[in-house]
Fold this protein.
Amino acid sequence: MWRYAFKRLLVAVPMLLGIALLTFVLMRISPGNYLDTVRMDPQFSKETIARYEQLYQLDKPLFYQYVQWVKNLLRLELGYSFYYNVPVYKIIGERIWNTFVLSLAAFLLTWCVAIPLGIWAALNRNRFADRAIQFFSCIALSLPSFFLGMILLFWASQTGMLPLGGMHSPDYESFGWPGRLVDLLKHLAIPAVALSIGSIAALQRIMRGNMLEVLGQKYILTAHAKGLSQRRVVYHHALRNAINPLITLLGYEFSSLLSGAALIEIICGWPGLGSLMLTAVRSKDVYLVMASMMMGGVLFIIGNLLADIALAKADPRIRYD
Amino acid sequence: MTRKSFSLKTVFPLLLSVSFLLPIFYSSASACAAQYGGQLILATTSDPKSFNEITAKETSTSLVTDLIFEGLTTTNAFTTKVEPNLAKSWDISEDGLIWTFHLREDVRWNDGQPFTADDVVFTFNKLIYNPDIPSSARDIFTIDDKTFTVEKVDDHTVRFVLPVKFAPFLRGMGQAILPKHKLEEIVAQGRFNFTWGIDTDPKEIVGTGPFNLVRYDPGQRLVFERNPYYWKKSIEGGPLPYLEKIIYLIVQSTDVGLLKFMEGTLDGYALRGMDYPMIKPLEKKGNFTVYDLGPDMGSQFLFFNQNPGKNPNSGEYFVAPYKLAWFTDREFRKAVAHAIDKQKIIEIVNNKLGYPQSSTMGSAAGFFYNPDVAEYDYDLDKAKTILREAGFVDRDGDGVIEGPRGGRVEFSLYTNAGSTDRVDIASIIRQDLERLGMKVNFRALEFNTLVSQLTSSFQWEAVILGLTGGIEPHFGKNVWMSSGQLHMWYPMQEKPATDWEKRIDEIFTQGVQELDENKRKVLYDEYQRIVAEELPIIYTVLSARLYAVRDKFGNLKPTSYGGVFHNPEELYIKEESR
């Protein structure tokens, strides 16, 4: 098992470099570079623009730029952002954490609601409760999350019950830690709900489907016949088997933790990676984009690995050695 | 300060603005005594990119640096005249080349250190003229590759020796001055380009302006506190500023900003035309006032590629020669100008809150604006007549006109996809051009792609784009002089392609050396007439600048040039609003 994990991590290194190379090439073969906005400003002369190009090494050959970047990476440096003029890690460190907080909240909300909901729907198959859940799931699935976010924000502005965007109140500093936590949760409510409604709908349908399939199996019948309680049959025998496919899904979810929230972040003013990356891509701030792609790549690899390990733990039939 | 005064702000205006231009004539004497304390909360849509005023390249930075730094002179927000600021007075030699500035003696940096001539000399000689530091300020203070000599006479006197006469000099002296005692070592170590980035401890950022930056939370807020050492005094002789804090919330979506304003979190908000019908009726209930500051500085225009060159690698023409013949034909451009329905654009794009633009300077340019230029009313019949007389006729009866020497008049029109305004303007113009019998293929391109086509590949036919203007005509030289790299219809000409371009070159060369403002105006009036006559750039409309402000501030004196909060040091919160 551990040998397997180690091998997987070794393979990840060339994969990450590949992701970086692909990002780099794509960013650079599309027309224009970071200095285009400056080029359209009448206040800047050709000479000054040339000076900026020199400063950012944009006048060097592409290959040279990439090799420089990889060399820096080996020293664990992610390069400089053109736009912000500071090392990339200084900009994204805090942003990654903020995005992580939001995604984690949405993630927990999704799983904690969707799994019980799916089980419940499966146990009440085709009764009123199940029909109602499936009906609202269809609506939730077809509602874009950014739109839902806007509606919730509008509702908040009308009722004044929740803060309008942002991550902390202006007087956050003056609170004690319980106050800070409450403040954070209040700010989290709208973006986290907007993010998770769609996923809850999807996940609960998958859970319901899996559960129904397992409940139809012979061994469930056997378990019932043995005289086990309904509770024990469902939670001990059916659930463990029904949840297997969801563990793989969990791994993918983990990898999208950093990238799934961009739109909602922008709408709700959440100071995360989303808006930062959007401007970075549009303004061709290459190294900033590459750093975030690397983060996404690392999370993806770790997520998949964790999912595989969890799967092996949950299902004794799976062996990697 | 520099960047703000030249490119962002509008001018004069009071005369030009419309009926709902509001109670501007507030006098601080009639209001009850100003009160200290309180805060102003505003919103900005993007994070600052840097706190380094010299290397900064965009306006989200000047929002911050304008509060912290000051220059020797400043532009009066009401009259747009240049006024003393850190310099209390100046003398000019007979030949106009030697300028001696007498600095105020009571100015301190916000860390308590005195401000002296050394700081001015340092800012110019060690920062702006430093070959290792890229800066647009360097371009402003360099004439024909020659820099100014800047020397200290005594602790409070600085002498500038110019290589040639330079009319925009005094306005240019709004250039922010940076502290030598903080930066000298950093420059000596060659680290200045990466200093005062957004990761800097705010305490390190030292200026002479009315406010200090005390806190920056990325993606969340910027907090400024009053500078206790600020030199300016109120009319009663008390210290300024009155406000204790200015807070900018970073709100990425303008819609959410609007909600925050309506909810009462924000004290002021810049409105878009589309917000106006919803916001205006709420004035009383929401306890705020909507100010119309007149036309914006940023213009939107259409232009055709007149570049006769070839791609040096492939030998292909940038524009097919038969098309180039139409685009360089003034009559063709005139017909197009007559087909631009400015009223419709104002109605649809600006929600009826806009102004037609005829002169290149724009009515917001104040002193140098020349209203007396050729205008092209929307008249499709006239446009058709002009085209027919110039030989553009539909000879084969397929509904599309042909050029005088044949060839269907079909061309591509580009704009950048990021600007919905421009995309809308393009589709209105396209409809009218098709009524004239032209075939227009419209495409919205990504901004970077469009810029590459304009500045390096040159393969385009017609483009709709915008630029921000300013009140100083000389700072448009990169656009208007035929050698400029932003002379977009035919950039970087070795010698002027036409007589009128030659004349504009002459005007800009003369104008920059003419120190008599009135004689300068005559020159720049002629340039505006030529542009309107020759139409290398066909202007459309200017949008109105609208601002909603909560009714609780004393000394609020909105002007078209300065905007609503041009005097943050004088603003105070009225007693009844506390």
